[in-house]
Here is the input.
Amino acid sequence: MTFQALLLNNQPVFSARVADLDEAALPEGEVLIRVSHSTLNYKDALAIGNTSPIVRAWPMVAGIDAAGVVESSSSPDFSPGDAVVVNGWGQGETRWGGLAQYVRVPAAWPVKLPAPYGPFEAAAVGTAGYTAAMCVQALEMHGLKPEDGPILVTGATGGVGSVTVLLLARAGFQVWAVTGKEEDAEYLKGLGAAEVLPRAEFAVPGKPLQKERLAGVVDALGSHALANACAQVRRNGAVAACGLAMGMDFPASVAPFILRGVTLYGIDSVYASRARREAAWALLAARITPADLAGIGKVIGLSETVAAAANILAGRVTGRYVVDVNR
Here is the structure.
């Protein structure tokens, strides 16, 4: 059996193209999944654009997300026809990923989709939304409640940010959304943001301690944005950091952490346990309906992913790309 996939190669020069591959070439694993939908994340865009050393083994099938149904399984945990999603685990980096019509994975990796989600909804959420859910869980497990004050969400028009705004708003939090795209203010308010703040306000060096105005933060940018956000968190507040779109550096002071008791949570969604993944997906299904996701995801075909990746890297995307791998 052959199938189509977005193949990245570095010989003799880098290339990213849709190719026909043989099922026998798939990596080993207990669960074979017939993929119907994938998505494009920032990490996927970096790999497809060859602008960062994301790929660690060549050739590589791109895509850190895969959603579809189980074709066959030697594991008692899964049966043919089960709707599942696989996020992270090195897909698209060290192991062939989900921008393909088939993936084969270890039985520990897939998560059965909670009702009312199917593969399309799982792809519309993707790693970005699943990461957003883990960020929200960290803040809520910290004990933050809507009455504690506003939650700042940076990179709010991106995949993580969009879903975070929606999840927090559905729980009754006042959400302040940070974006560099002023034209998308109505989009963010439609998701539930109470305020939309300019990214420029957070993109430059700031004082180690600033006015206490935030109960918490979900940050997808890193660098000065994360440093400024931490400096504005109230006593005993919390920050969930999950991204580095502005940079990997953290030009900050320990002052917020030792003088105000602020807690910084690092969110690793790539290698999280199945229990944590299931809890995150349950939260998503409880707060975000399939109808909600219709306004976040734009559907493209496998052949359109290279151009779409360039749009992501150029900052021209609002919301999520959902990839129909059979289109």
About this structure: Residues 119-142 form the longest helix (24 residues). The chain has a mean pLDDT of 95.
